[in-house]
Amino acid sequence: MDLIVGDDGRARPSWAVSSPMYLEYYDTEWGVPVRDERGLFERLSLEVFQCGLSWSTILNKRERFREVFHDFVPDTVAAFSEADVERLMGDAGIVRNRRKIEATISNAQATIALRDDGGLPLLIWSHLPEVTPAPATMADIQAVSAESVALSKALKKRGFRFVGPTTMYALMQAIGMVDDHPVGSWRRGSSGVFGPDGRALPQDQPAD
Prior knowledge:
Endonuclease III, domain 1, mainly alpha
């Protein structure tokens, strides 16, 4: 078990205690369900920018991302112009990658288009697995799943970009669609999405 028990008596994986930033993220956010459109668009966008980079890079720049992308309101981002792209390319506070910036704008447009067909939350959460993994260590955590492959295909079909299966699995971890807190971690089972047996609960039913 690669869990570390902190001074507070709580067990966490080693990565979660590697910095105060990671500790805060692990304890309060990673694996907490996100079901609203704006929140999901923000998380998806950050995962897009994370491709090929460390997550710490994104967390360090997150507040600036929120500022320059106007809190990731899809309607606002969808209306960004080429001048906005150039503005973002000149901002050292974010990841200056033109393809990812342009993908975020087009993903905002795709998010708006989805509203006529149930919306982004419905599309993403319809790929909730029936059973969550139960990793004994962080080394047991997979990088993709059948559900993340299916989600990737569904999003690409609706015009989303930079949404490969690995990126979508990271999104699923972050928003509580899988519980990849290692067995023994104090956060294991805290999302309310899965029951004690690891099976998904009806989405309007909290866990005991």
